[in-house]
Amino acid sequence: MHVSVRLGEDDRLCLLVVIGVREDGVTELLAVEDGYRESTESWASVMRDLKDRGLNEPRLVIGDGALGTWAALRDVFPGARRQACWVHKIARVLDALPKRLQPDAKKLLHEMMEAPTRKDAKAALERFREQFDAKYPKPVSKLDKDWAHLTAFYDFPAEHWRHLRTSNAIESSFATVKVRTRVTKGAGSKRAALAMAYKLLDAAQERWRRFNGHELVADVLAGVEFKDGERVTDDQTMTTDEKVAA
């Protein structure tokens, strides 16, 4: 999130914010840091600090697609899975299409995001490809490029999907900070902006809702396998192709 600053050489502050979910399903603010244009090193510094403070390797990290985030994740938490935000991806795909085609494209994109299984999501992707790829290959390539990361949520409990498919948990909390900075026409300094953002987000977390299916978070952390949102039982095994897709 970028916050306006009235004084100093830079008129904007780049805030790097991390929200996590505890084993009991409670959502908690983990970090609010001053970064440099969402760079890899800035994100790596945030993640290393979290690791030093005792954060175990996350099972899944949801982000808006900033490359610095993912590069830092590979360096600090190489075993963490990655989930790309569907809301951001849909916006970028639609931007690559003419406005007259966007309503039909948006409908197919939501079918992908909300598909009940990975196979159904892939089928919706192929319908999108059939309709648009010949004349507009760019939006299709945007989906192909991140498909594995867009569908990572299928390997987690279905009760969690609404929380995992987007980074809206952070985006909605930013609204409070943005409103305050508009009213004050920006903080007086970077330090003041950082302190204000932290205090507002810290207060906001008291209103954050607990994860749906919070009792399943412990299973996820324990390494229980899920396929298309359902627990994989002892008499079920994932095929090699399914593990590669996951």
- State the distance separating the first and last CA atoms: 30 Å
Major sheet: arrangement of strands:
1-2-3
Mean pLDDT: 86
Using the CA coordinates, give the radius of gyration. 19 Å
Largest sheet: 3 strands, antiparallel
SSE arrangement:
Blueprint lengths: L1 E3 L7 E10 L5 E9 L4 H13 L7 E4 L3 H10 L4 E4 L1 H10 L6 H12 L4 H15 L4 H14 L10 H4 L3 H16 L6 H15 L12 H5 L4 E2 L2 E2 L8 H6 L1
Plain-language structure description:
The protein is globular. Helix 3 runs antiparallel to helix 4 and helix 5 (118-132) runs antiparallel to helix 6 (137-150). 23% of the residues are buried. A three-stranded antiparallel sheet has the order 1-2-3, sandwiched between helices. The protein has a two-stranded parallel ribbon with strand order 4-5. A two-stranded antiparallel ribbon has the order 6-7. The chain is built from eleven helices and seven strands. It has 246 residues and is of the alpha+beta class.
Main features:
246 residues, three-stranded antiparallel sheet, 7 strands, single chain, 14% strand, two-stranded parallel sheet, 11 helices, alpha+beta
